[in-house]
Amino acid sequence: MPHLPEDIHAVGRLLADENYVADRALATVVFLALKLGRPLFLEGEAGTGKTEIAKAIAAALGRRLIRLQCYEGLDAASAVCDWNFAAQMIAIRTAEAGGTADRDALRAELFTEDYLIERPLLAAMRPQPGGAPVLLIDELDRTDEPFEAFLLEALSDFQVTIPELGTIRAPEPPIVILTSNRTREVHDALKRRCLYHWVDYPTFDREMAILHARAPEATESLSREIVAFVQKLRTEDLFKKPGVAETIDWAKCLLALDVIALSPEVIADTLGAILKYQDDIAKITGSPAKKLLDEVRADLAPA
Amino acid sequence: MADLAPLDIPEDGKLTANITHFARALRKAGLRIGPGRVLDAIRAVEAAGFSEKRDFYWVLHAVFVSRPEERAVFAQIFRLYWRDPRYLEHMMSLMLPAVRGVQEDRRAAAAEKRAAEALLDGVARDTPEMGEGENDEVQIEADATATISAEERLRTLDFEQMSVAEIAEAKRMIAKLELPVRPLASRRTRTDPAGRVADWRATMRQAMRRGGEMQALVTRRRRERWPNLVVLCDISGSMSQYSRMVLHFVHAVANRKGAGWAKVHAFTFGTRLTNITRHLAHRDVDAALAAAGAEAQDWQGGTRIGSCLHAFNRDWSRRVMGQGAVVILISDGLDRDPAADLSREMERLHLSARRLIWINPLLRWDGFVPKARGIAAMLPHVDSFRAGHSIASLDDLGRAIGAARDSGEKDRLMRLIGV
Predict the structure, then answer these.
(1) Stretch A154-166: mean pLDDT
(2) Distance CA B125, CA A197 (A)
(3) What is the ipTM of this complex?
(4) Cα dist. B337→A12, B313, B340, B417, B418 in Å?
(5) Hey, are the CB atoms on A85 and B201 less than 8 Å from each other?
(6) What is the rounded average pLDDT of the residues A173-202?
(7) Do A92 and B207 touch (CB under 8 A)?
(8) Kind and range of the H or E run holding A199
(9) Could you tell me if B362 and B397 are in contact, meaning their C-beta atoms sit under 8 angstroms apart?
(10) Do B66 and A101 touch (CB under 8 A)?
(11) Count of alpha carbons within 13 Å of B5, Cβ hemisphere only?
(12) CA 20 to 30 Å from A277, out of A12, A263, B34, B61?
């Protein structure tokens, strides 16, 4: 089992081994989260690689990744645990049929781990082979406030309470990563328990590095054009700006089409890979795309 | 992210005191930092060590910053503070305007003052009346019938034709108005004997109490939750009297506990969009509107509905309308922007709202025809179109929101413009 990284530099290297290119700021907060055992709260636009961080950390440290995808109306039964009622019912009937309906014995037997269905939060509190797991609580802004309040106990003391079993405490705190797209403001009480980082769109160099790591087949010149074009696109007034995930998708699309250099026609054909709103596509298709491409070419020319 | 020049971190062994002072400076600049955070920060700095100077920045950043707007403030204060902490006092006086400049490009104080005055005129005249509670009581007692009929008259009186005293009275009546709404079915459930879904967990627990004998099925049903209300209020010159009254109304709705509406978000727009939600939380309506007026600098200016709606759609709609919000748009629809954009932005707004209700004071004129380009562009994209010029019409609005299918005057006007 790989050990926790010693310093910030080691975190960057560790993530780089998993093809995740982190800037120094991100490496710093990840290091702190690991070292201090605090949850890490990542906010940022969609497609900037928030979820990927959790995956990369889990893979780099050889830990199990437990993912809790949030949605509106998520409640304790689907986040912590549930009882296997069908199995319990059968056990009761079997006991009755066998004539051994001893109340206390039955009660003791029915609410045990055998009939418990683990959900992500409980699973994250359990000891795992290879060390405490990485718990990814994804898109927290999609849940409602009652669930946020419920998370407070889990995240500050790393324990969950199940009425029938009592409080279960993690022997070793899991590495918790929370992500939010900021469609709604998350309550301060929850944020206070976490280290905070805003994941921004990457700089040109960092995005080039990411593209190299994720789509190594792309040639240097094509990569430069792709990244420069996407970066340019992010300065336009769009409803949804393309994220890094879109850059990678687009590069893969272009590679599949055997494109070696961008052209207005190619861009028009593949724009759907980077822009996801009809308004945005209509705005860029045609002469704006050509103009952007010309600007990109002009920027890249001296280099 | 801003590139930061190397900073000189004082190495006099007083790091703890320095971080504490630094936290205090941040707190003064508006970041919400409790004592617990300071301890966290010290622990974090110890954990990270000092292998590189810029790490120090990100370590403190991770602990102290908790929302994107705070990043710029943090960067400013960090630079100023860690350059030479001995000048803290001097710096605090210099820093605040600088930080404010980053936070939002506020214009000179004169404009704010003008906006506040514009918003607040009439308040000074109301205040004595509010203060002399005893005299009022006597008067009402002596002439109760007259009060009732005056109230009736006031209900249908146009806001623009009201005298100062009538406005003061109208505000009091508005504060009592309600905006009832239907609850939405939530994914969460609660125990209910008439529910349709079996609650196996509770059923089993009940059975265990009786030695495993199943007696009755415990059932659950969907919980109900309240939708959000988003109010977009035009505060341009042509709308000033109405928008002020409507904002009074919004304040009353936002501050009534237990009357539906999970959250009330309010925005004003004229030439630019301003979020005044925070200010509505003031209990006192005048304080709330004064704060809102100070923030919205375009009070009584021109109107650019299209670009303001665009700003709303881009920056706010996904944040405040995520969970089925009802949108009330208050505007006369007299726009200076090209109509094509306006139509597109209205369509986008309509698509992301559960219900879009447009309140237009121009509708009070009999024989109003939606000829203006802006109105014709906006009308097809609203669910309901209503007047909002008197207390009675605001009361009607309350009823309209309660009804599931209400289009107000929309259908009639759509026929008029031949769509």
Answers:
(1) 86
(2) 49
(3) 0.73
(4) 49, 16, 9, 20, 23
(5) yes
(6) 89
(7) yes
(8) strand A195-199
(9) no
(10) no
(11) 6
(12) A263
